[in-house]
Amino acid sequence: xxxxxxxxxxxxxxxxxxxxxxxxxxxxxxxxxxxxxxxxxxxxxxxxxxxxxxxxxxxxxxxxxxxxxxxxxxxxxxxxxxxxxxxxxxxxxxxxxxxxxxxxxxxxxxxxxxxxxxxxxxxxxxxxxxxxxxxxxxxxxxxxxxxxxxxxxxxxxxxxxxxxxxxxxxxxxxxxxxxxxxxxxxxxxxxxxxxxxxxxxxxxxxxxxxxxxxxxxxxxxxxxxxxxxxxxxxxxxxxxxxxxxxxxxxxxxxxxxxxxxxxxxxxxxxxxxxxxxxxxxxxxxxxxxxxxxxxxxxxxxxxxxxxxxxxxxxxxxxxxxxxxxxxxxxxxxxxxxxxxxxxxxxxxxxxxxxxxxxxxxxxxxxxxxxxxxxxxxxxxxxxxxxxxxxxxxxxxxxxxxxxxxxxxxxxxxxxxxxxxxxxxxxxxxxxxxxxxxxxxxxxx
Length: 444
Hints:
This protein has about 450 residues and is of the alpha/beta class. The protein has helices spanning about 20-30, 40-50, 80-85, 100-115, 125, 165-180, 200-210, 225-235, 245-255, 260-275, 295-305, 320-325, 335-340, 345-355, 395-405, 405-415, 425-440, and strands at about 30-35, 55-60, 70, 75, 90-95, 120-125, 135, 185-190, 215-220, 235-240, 280-290, 310-315, 370, 375, 385-390. It folds into 2 domains: about 20-125, 3-Layer(aba) Sandwich (Rossmann fold), CATH 3.40.50; about 135-440, Aldolase class I (TIM Barrel).
């Protein structure tokens, strides 16, 4: 079936495994292994390392608040401890564990110190090329105007399924992922819906913990019924989506959400983390637009006061609507409003995408994307098209080949939308706006 298909989309061509177990053994065996990055990527990678038979000597991290502490008994030290000691290079091996943009900086620092790729260090993506998502919830409690879920009548098929993945199906899916992805270290428990609505979310996190798998959550945080149990279970990170500080702008773009509920739940999160000594990292995503830019400083101060990380992003309509715009189909009124308040215009973003057409897809590693009903979706950036009816019945190799030949992928690449969510580049545009208007140093 799928294995007989040719690879037609080179921008998405992905190999399931970069190195054989023997090659990994040659790199890591007998050396002191360091994980550079003690945050939301590095912490779960510790378990993948141990599950594959290796031990971490220490974490490397430049954050002053972390240096001198430990995570699960593994000390956190300054990167200079290794990079500043050439005599220790041949007995040490560093795995770079962070976001792609930060890993580039880490790799540069390694090279400048005299370290050699594959001899002294590798990126975590080289050991774990795949980053799966499991949509445990088939429902969302908001109708954000930039999201295809925001328009519930007419148009493309409804995303409102009303279902939740059962705990039994989740366990079957995760066991299969572990067999197919030996260095699996984290699973995102969301795609389009809100996992905080799932009544078994805490149990899912606990099951992940029992297997040494990190849990990633993205939420609008407008539902707090299971919040304490979730924090107590200790997911690695929770990303909270916002678009303003106060009801005036937030409740327009996060349509159906209530600012007072979000604010209370954020304070409750802080309280629960302290109460249960939870290791969960909270990151507030601030979708900056023309209307809410002046409120960023208030959000910045709030996050600093409460110990949350803050990541400003350029607001944008979703990829489904970008295709509608390119193909000259009219946007519904909500999406049109969301488009008009974008700080970087949609035309500017599309020009940026076209200039980067030959580069690889930014969502290439986000695979497999498993829906709440166990079907496999083509991409985490689109709300439609299915690759396979049941993940349990298809191999990773077949999924990769099917995606490379998917009609949606072909259209996305034809329009250069595989470079649409280039947040690392867009923040270069956003940073001076935040600094000038708010007179603060944005945390980017």
